[in-house]
Amino acid sequence: MSSALDVKRTLAKNTLVFFAVFALLFGGFGVLAFRFTSATIYRASDDLLEEANPSMQVVGALHDSMGALYALQGRGALTSLGTVLADADNPFGPNGYDERLEQLVEDLFMAISPQTVYLYRNSQGAVVEALGPYSSYDGYFSGTPFDASSLGSIYEVNVNGHDYRAVNYVLAGVGHGAAEGMFGAAEETSAPKAAVGPSEEAYLQVLVNVDSEKATLDGLSSTLAAYLAVAVCVSAAASYLLSRRLLRPLVSNWRKQTEFVQNASHELRTPLSIIRMKQELLLRHPQQRVIDRFEDVDASLDETKRLEKLVGELMQLALQDDRRLEAAKEPVDVDGLVANACDLYADVCEMQGKHLVANLRFRGVAQVDPAQMRQLLSILLDNACKYTEPGDTVTVTTEARSGRLALCVADTGCGLSKEERRRAFERFYRADRARSRATGGNGLGLSIAHGIVSAHRGKITLAPNHPRGTRAVVTLPANG
User: 457 — phi, psi (to 5°)?
Assistant: First the structure.
């Protein structure tokens, strides 16, 4: 029960780990996609903002000139750029205005994109001139957020329900005397003149409308939110399925290990119980001679041999599991080795009324471990003889197939079903019809045979032997 609980805990833990990894991956991908799209979609507007820098603009001189005007206007000396252009006494041209200044203003409007707004601000930060869309509406941009300490950095503002990307630049300031030298005497107005120092600055705030870009990003945000919600659900399901898939071989091995321990305990308990019982009987009659208790001594000896054989097989299986069972290969006359093994079993088969036939056609030398090959043949012949009835035939065949050694041990016994053949190589597995302890088997033989064949990089299979019986077919590399 505790092991099953451990498996469930491990499944839950792995599911959470996988889910966290998937969630981070999907979430990170969504964030990166949003940031990349945001940077890309605002690139054109940000380029316009950077190009509006007076130090980089061809019209930078105009920006500075207008900045000087607005610095003076902040002192109440001028009202607007139009005041200068319409003043018949301005010193910039014979026609009452400077044609170059007018042309520069026209060029500036041509440079402005349909989405760009120029806001000229005086030293107090108030908007004194607006150029661009919606600038014809009085006071439309008067409430635009502005921070004189933030210069050259792009930020976002919302003006009357529209989204803009904005940047602030400082424009060159002029003293009062210099302004009078450039533009003539200041126009007399009733407005009080501000007390200023020798120089004042004006500011340029550039806005680029990004309503369409913002709408696109909002749509992308909604799409990413839906995508992440779906991704989270998919991640949860995928994490659970992946965890189960990874735990499946562990659970299978755990079940096999549990079954192996139970079967091994059962197989070890039986001979130990018999030995203990026989020894207790001997202790009850210490005065009797050994010959008088011969059956008990013989039974104890038989069970001891059986126990020794079982422990040896378990040790060999442990070596196979640890991949320390190696084949000490050497050139071996395969037909001769198989013939010797068949001779040992021929008398046993004859005494049981069975027939053993050897059909050896390999006629060559193969690189194999002779000791392990003898053990393999012993296991296959022992099974074939045990599970056949008197009058049945056991046939051993060797031949060469495409440069490989093919060894086949076939019998005409009771045979095995498809499910029994599939499970035959499991440890301690014995078919129901062959489970009688009278056979002396413990279900480890074919498992050991499979390990020997694997150590030789070969393959062993069980197949029906028509019309009845079973065929054990082993194929090994002839050259090692």
Answer: 55, 40
